[in-house]
## 1
Amino acid sequence: MAALSFLSLPLPSKTSIAASYSSNPPLPGRKLRAAVIGGGPAGSSAAEALASGGVETFLFERSPSNAKPCGGAIPLCMLAEFQIPNHLIDRHVTRMKIFSPSNLAVDFGKTLLPHEFIAMLRREVLDSFLRSRAESSGAELISGLVTDLKVPTITGAPYVVDYVVGGSRRELAVDVVVGADGANSRVAKSIRAGDYTCAIAFQERIRLPDEKMKYYENLAEMYIGNDVSPDFYGWVFPKCDHVAVGTGTVRAKQEIKVYQRGIRERVKPKINGGKVIKVEAHPIPEHPRPVRIRGRVALVGDAAGYVTKCSGEGIYFAAKSGRMCGEAIVRASDGGERMVDERDLKREYLKEWDAKYVSTFRFLDLLQKVFYGSNAAREALVELCGDEYVQRMTFESYLYKKLADGNRWEDAKMLVNSIGSLMRCKIIGEKMEALTL
């Protein structure tokens, strides 16, 4: 393996480092060396950008055959932006139904244009494609488990990645590290990036009889209510020959199987006769980490905490953050010719990311706090989702990954309707609770 030839990089003296590092010195006789830890959408996109930009790149993935439990929905803009081929798409979802706690159903998708849809993919298919493309761009894929990242104590010294391949322990020294190793990131722990709140997602893949699978041909469903999650939602998303049925929670992770039974009970008539072919569970971050860059280490994707509240979406933001980070390192290093430092990563990656997406994350965080706090608020949310203006604004923001430009008059009406729905559904909720008691 080529990586074995880079077990150690020369360590310059403290004096020479202090004199030259601050001005991003050129790297004589070699290219900048980067390790990307994690081969999901974030890591693969970072590795592709780095390798194609002239940086010597090593992409670590512990289990290439495994798949993260994930709904697998990606927005329309990602297909073009990341050149995702059509044959990877399992389903073109053009219809969505949202079910309230009382099982009020709203058709969500009436404003979609003829060419618009939500792409449903299997993560194992998407991740494999993105890793292969990173390899084609020049990244070296290492199928091994990273066990530790040794942080240098001398400025400018290499980072050392400890990893295991086939039971054999190995090391690799690099100049810069991209942590894309998920919510339980070892890279984040190594740089003391701080903790964050995690949700847990639980999902069953269920193969349905043909006549029942026909119902979900181009339809996805979302269910909200305390029976399926106290702070999130349950889903039924169609795949190639099965449906993914799952839920998630932050507040009551130990009860996740109870909520999974809840979503199964809600959809029972539609999945009766189905066969469970896979059961999956995985932590999902709820907000960005306190530290996303330290030294010459940058976090992307779930490791950085880039999953939106309310929708729980993370695939696009993982791939986007990975690509932005990789491109930032390429720019700062002049195509791999120069060393980079923490200031470069913060300026070229973190500042650009926050400017582009912080408002989106904050807005969805606010929506979750307002509408996911009680069953009464959830009833109001579903009622609002029946409004075509709300649907158009939602889908424009989701499909194209930017906050849609609204109409001031319609926005004012939407605010009034939101307040009215919340007040009305609070009264309804209290009556329902009284009847239950």
Note: The two ends are 67 Å apart (CA to CA).
## 2
Amino acid sequence: MTPDLSIVVPLYNEAGGLAGFHARLSAIAASEARTRGLRLEIVYVDDGSRDNSAALAAGLPVLGIDVQVVALSRNFGKEAALMAGLDHARGDAVLFMDGDGQHPPEMIPTFLRLWKDEGWDVAYAVKEDRSDEPASRRTFVRIFYRMLNFGASTRIPEDAADFRILSPRAAAALRRMPERNRFFKGLTSWIGFRQIAVPYRPAPRAHGSSSWSFLRLLGLSMEALTSFSPAPLRLAALFGAALAGLALLYGGWIVVERLFWGIPLPGYPSIVVGLMVIGGTQLLVMGVMGEYIARILSEIKARPVYYVADHVLNRAAAEAGGHAMAGQVAGGQVPPHPVALASRAEP
């Protein structure tokens, strides 16, 4: 039977703690399924891990709820993994969470209560504070969100995590978005509906270390800005206008000095400095425009966002005394959600 809720969990080199995480997640999800009379499933999406996360996930025990494992052909990035999970989720409602243990499964009952009992369409987790992070990272995040929301029609909540639940109509709206340059937090904010923030404190990683280096965060930030916000173009235009105004004032000051005080016009240094400033500004603006043009080219080429290498569906025991069923398919013979766009991927 079709699940009521799919729990999508992207994986990247999480083999060390996956078994323990799966046990916690399955226990809580199965308990909520029995309490509320819901059908749930877990969808693990392996984003080209270098360890054996995909094989380990495919062999995880079925502890009361169905388990899907979607192994991508290479590392496409977290945004692509989230999209793959959304495409393959069989449930109408979808809950997204990370597989490193920092998104506590114990919050699932809270999300279900907000969706089922209080009627919220999107409930998203927000970090209570970032006091445990370096000051440089906190400053970078603050600047990023200021730029992202600068002139934006829809405000994206600061410090919001990918840990969130989407009601059936919110998930259906997200599935209808065909763009390939995706920023998950921005898209889930843009669709609207009733949304609520849920404060949480991330749990410490039980194993390994984060794969999000500063350069990867910078790349993701540029991806988010250019795919969801006109802020870089607007800031470049404002910078150019300010530079032009300063140049006009400086030119007028030089004329006043020459006519009223007889001060000779300095030649070579002022020309060189002026050319360097103007040239640097032009290169900056061209670079920003190039980022947007690259995104346009990516959309026009319409390449699949991801490719699936293996797809496993392990079913829980049937309710009416049936036996446990497990199936493994290659090339995605277990179809994705019917409203998923087939052109997005080669499932």
Note: The mean pLDDT is 75.
## 3
Amino acid sequence: MSVSRAFAFLTLILPVVTATAENSRPQPIDSGATEETQNLLAHLHHIGWHTDSFMFGQEFPLSYQREMKGINDPATSDLKEVVGDHPGVHGSDFHFMIDKDPHEIVAHKVAALTAYESGSMVTFDFHWVGKYGGTHSWHKEDAKILYNVVNDNDKRGDVTWFYQSLDEVIRIVNEDLQFPIVFRPFHEMNGNWFWWGSKLKGGPETYKQAYRILVDYIKERSDYFLFCWSPDKDLTLEYYPGSEYVDIIGFDGYGQGNPKVHWFTVNDMIEQLEAVVDFAAKEDKVAAFTETGYDTKNNVDYHTTRPDWWTQSVLDPILASEKASRIAWVLTWINSDWSGPYTPYSGSPEPSKEAFQKFHAHEATLFQEEVSSRSIYAPLR
């Protein structure tokens, strides 16, 4: 079945599957998941299907700031200085806990622990540095690694390297963090920029098998993981590894509402979020907008051109769609001296800060104080 025909079919059956999703209490794909991990999934499901709100998140909010003077004090953040609260979802990345200098590694771990202890959800992606190219970007030799893993071909040492890398991820969670996380491995696989992406040797079949191998390996060694699958700009189901390997179905897309961006519009955002929610309903999963933001290439600061972007191009269109509003969270990217800004900071123009304060105050957006009040790691009542 083509993707377009599949979406049409999902639209026809939405009332039935939505009712099923609303009335269910899904269990993690890891049957041995800790009680806190089970509770977290139940809360995510409840926020998505039973409330008219979603959590707001950002990548590295407690360790990076726009006007950086070294690693940030985890008690503050750009958003704390603008709206008086931290994000309700804390984004992190295993690359920054494995490949950076020891001081920065510790700082990112402390930030994640602080977010968890403050009641926020913590989600990890992994900009996995390849074995050959020295980066997470596509490299012709790194693009062969997963093909060798799924075929158990260790002539180049790729299989050994793959599992050793996962062992360090597992060690960080089991020993250093010891709390539930949402893990988004191999994200944006339908794009051509990562070594696990669309130019992967063996294509989607290799990708799906590698994702399954990763999930099975982690499940046998840790019970703190929920697993999220998130393509870029299009719900490309040919890469979907199967619902027995996924807890959360996500979607990444940047630049909607930017007049210079023509490849991803607000209408595209809503169309794809609705498709994600349709599919999540059918598979009894949680849906999420796992990455978004104004296009900030070449250091274009949206705060001076579209100060109300977060309301006009994200919040209002999502709330106007019964389907799209069923997501559990929205996460944006890093504010630092080398990234963004994706949210206002102390030096932003006043119209930008005032607009985001209204975004924060809206009843549909959940920041740390509101997420903490829900006790997302305790049983759902």
Note: The chain has one domain: 3-373.
